[in-house]
Every structure is written in structure tokens, then in C-alpha cells.
Hints:
Rossmann fold
Amino acid sequence: xxxxxxxxxxxxxxxxxxxxxxxxxxxxxxxxxxxxxxxxxxxxxxxxxxxxxxxxxxxxxxxxxxxxxxxxxxxxxxxxxxxxxxxxxxxxxxxxxxxxxxxxxxxxxxxxxxxxxxxxxxxxxxxxxxxxxxxxxxxxxxxxxxxxxxxxxxxxxxxxxxxxxxxxxxxxxxxxxxxxxxxxxxxxxxxxxxxxxxxxxxxxxxxxxxxxxxxxxxxxxxxxxxxxx
Length: 229
């Protein structure tokens, strides 16, 4: 489901007194999956908006430009960005093309920064091409190197529960879809592994707490990652 254009209003920041967090969903999602995370981030003191785009049928370049127009129309003073899976790659593309955006921090959740083994294997299957759609190349690794324009923290999962369990070659540990090694990014500022699956990462209270901490301080809290919610 495509979100309506935000350009109709000059004051669409949900709460100008709070730092803004824009959340970007992953493949096959619409943004509804991020509503719980957004609610928890609001309780943490942030204003939030969710960006929705067509992750399968839509053109990635067009989605990146729509994301740019979306955040620009909000006129934030501070702009934090949080992306799940493919959403984290959209954020990287956004910042690579638009470094002039307001300052802030980035958290990616289950994002295959080094390219996804599962995506590459699915691309060679007819049904897999339909599943990945026009996001296939991006998920496979067609993203410019991270230039370290702002602090970035990457959260990975290590509970192997997902489509990747049935794919030969997915390195362990993994979250069932993305390997922990795939979530590591040269130039990132912190990395955290939680005992969660790819889908559970976005609904976990632990993920929300750690995201909030990084957005506030630029670091995760590594002493409290032994149990899932």
C-alpha cells in the first residue's frame, strides 16, 4: 500500500517539540508491522512517523525519492531513521543521495548490509523472483558503501526461525532470514545481537528499548541481551 504524498502540508511534524523518528518497513510489509515499535518509541520521548512503500512492485529508486519527499515535508530539526530489513537499505540509499538531511542517528534491524544469501538464492527460483520483485538487487547487495554520515547502530537476531532455515548456505547464527554476519557494516558505530527471529525483532520490547537507547546515546546496552521478550 502506497502512502499519500506528504507535500500538501507545510507542518506535518507530529510533535515539533520532540525529535522525530521515521520508521521504514521491510519486504512484503506495509508499515503496520512497525506500529508497536513506533508506539514504544513515542513512550521513550520521540515523535514518530511510518513510511509506507511498495516493496515488491515499486521501483527502489522511486521509493527512495518518495522517502526523501516524505521526510523533507515534515521539516524536522532532528531526524532519526529506523529501518527493518530492506527498510534499512532504503535508509542507506536515502542518506547516500541526500546527505543534506537534518542530523540524527540510524538504527537498522535485521538489515542485510552485506547482501542477503536468501535473496540471492531466491532470485534463481521462479517463485522467488515473484517474492522479491524489484527489490531483489538491493537485497542482494547493490547498495553503495556506508560513508558514515551519521551514527548507525545495527541490531541482528540469532533465533533461526524463518524461510532461510530451508535455504542451503545461510550462515549461522541467523534470525531465520538474515545471518548475523550480513548485518555487520563497515563504519557502523555499534552492533547488537538479540535472541529473536527476523519477524520478532520488530515487535520485541527489547528491540524498542535498545533502539531508544541508541537514538539517545549512540550506543546499545550490551549487558542485557541474554533473554528474549
